[in-house]
Amino acid sequence: MLKMVVCLKQVPMVSELPWDPRTGTLQRDLAEGMMNPACRSALEAALRLRAGEGGEITAITMGPPMAEEVLREAIALGADRGVLLTDRRMAGADTSVTSYTLARAIERACAGFDLVLCGFSTIDSETAQVGPQLAEELAVPGVAGIDGIELFGRTVRMRRLSDNFLETLEMDLPGLITVATGENALQHVPLGGLQAAFDGAKILTLSADDLGLDPEIIGVKGSATRIISVTSPTAAKKNLVLTGAPKRIVEQLFERFDDKIGGAIGRDLKTEKAK
Amino acid sequence: MDFNPCMKHKAVRKAVRMFAEAELAPIARDIDRDARFPWEVVEKMRPLHFFGLQAPREYGGAEMDSISYAIAIEEISRISAAMGLCLTVHNSVGVYPIVRFGTEEQKKRFLPAMARGDSIGAFCLTEANAGSDAGGVETTAVWDGSDYVINGTKIFVTNGGVCGTALIFAITDPQNLQKSAGVFIVEQDTPGFSVGEIEDLCGMRANPVSSLFLEDCRVPEGNLLGRPGDGIRIGLTTLDTGRIGIAAQALGIAQSAFEDAVRYSKERQQFKKPISSFQTIQNFLADMATEIDAARLLLYRACAVKDSGRPFGAEAAMAKLYCSEMATRVTNRAVQIHGGYGYSREYDVERYFRDAKVTEIYEGTSEVQRMVIARAVLSQRT
To answer: Does B78 reach chain A within 8 Å, measured CB to CB?
Structure first.
């Protein structure tokens, strides 16, 4: 039986982002959470593999208690069980420490796994580091940015679009794959599944103590990197109204924007004009 | 008392909102303009249990609690009130009476196809001479020794043009109206059952509201819901549940109009300032936000009372009355904030305005709701 682990991250909901207009920063405490889109693609990939091959899917997430919601959503979509890593001492972890913590939890709760699937990157930090680092921590091969997976016995064949090339890769199990938001079209959540996931499904909750982790090497304490500040670049957009007869308007357009127009058509209009 | 939505209710709202924004939003304006029922969306809703929101799991339903149900209707109606209408009528006055009053055999026969959405439900009370006065029903169901033979005409039937299972309110003995009313389950392929022309309505245009004709429609005894004479009781209980759905629908329409009004007031410049900087507009928005919040609390209270198993008729009537009249006020204000553009089909607020009005009329008019509430008040106070 194929034992799969899908790592999920709850990220702030893009459409409901409350910004503080004075500071230009995200008010994270007010933000609604959602399952990161690439993580959802990873779950979808696991569901497809299970539909073909059978097996079992464990959804795992690390975050505040409210992150439980993405595990229940995963169960509504078809995951078999959920594991929540939540502990104040795990908070503020950078990608390296996150991978370390996830690896220890996977070893504990999903021993003997065949395949770990992660989203390629998250929309709130975009590092794409946790997946590859997690492969290192688990000491299994890892492939990043995949959008098609097939299984042949103990070998997975994967497709990856990189630049304009379509790569086909193979990896023996156990292994780890990060999935891009590509071909795995997002499924809508079935409402019956959602109700059942909240009414009955058990979530295994693990703390640092449960995993026997040294509080000094996890969370913000154990992290080697720090975020100094997050600000929103203010785009200073200025509108310009060109007036006059059409001919004059076009002339002005070329006078003012010859560099941009030239760039778009692949010619150096400034030099041509000088000549 | 916790006023924060629980994790499940948040998740339900997100799931339905994501569906509605992806699948319904791109066509909501067009299906209203063309008065077209979007079967392609129905197709996508079926596997997600939208047609069995509160039906038991054993019959293929989602078995949702009432607040989850209200949230689902609210979120669909926020994008397309006409589809919200289809769902609320199907679920709360089509499926629910069978769940509540049906025999085991009736449940097995009718619920799976309805919960799958293969057979869309309709509830038919209104006639030319009966509406607010249920006692005026003239459709008859006469027992001829082997079948009930139903004759009559039902009007303004929501989902009429697409229904597969119609619950027909009829009397078995014209001499004894009160004691002989019954609710009959009639399937659309029953000989003698036919659909009239689709009504050309002011709002809810994507829902095929129509008349239904019953000419010597024969149904077996097993199609009578409850016992002979239970009609009034079943009808009233069903309408109490239906009112929760219509209140949720009105709330969704108001929410949408409010969001559009807030957005527009920040974009629209007059006197070199966004109109949201003017106190008049701020007062409008403050009143709208307050009324929407009050309506939502009343609605969720009615849902909670229903799920606790206590009588909820008065609470449902209050929620329906307040949500629907609030929706008319809020959508009216939203049009006003949009000015001339609000009166144009180029923007959605005119649709919300048209859609909101009927929530004060169907599933019991505002006047009937006040009657229900007054009756409860007078029976409780000395």
So the answer is: no
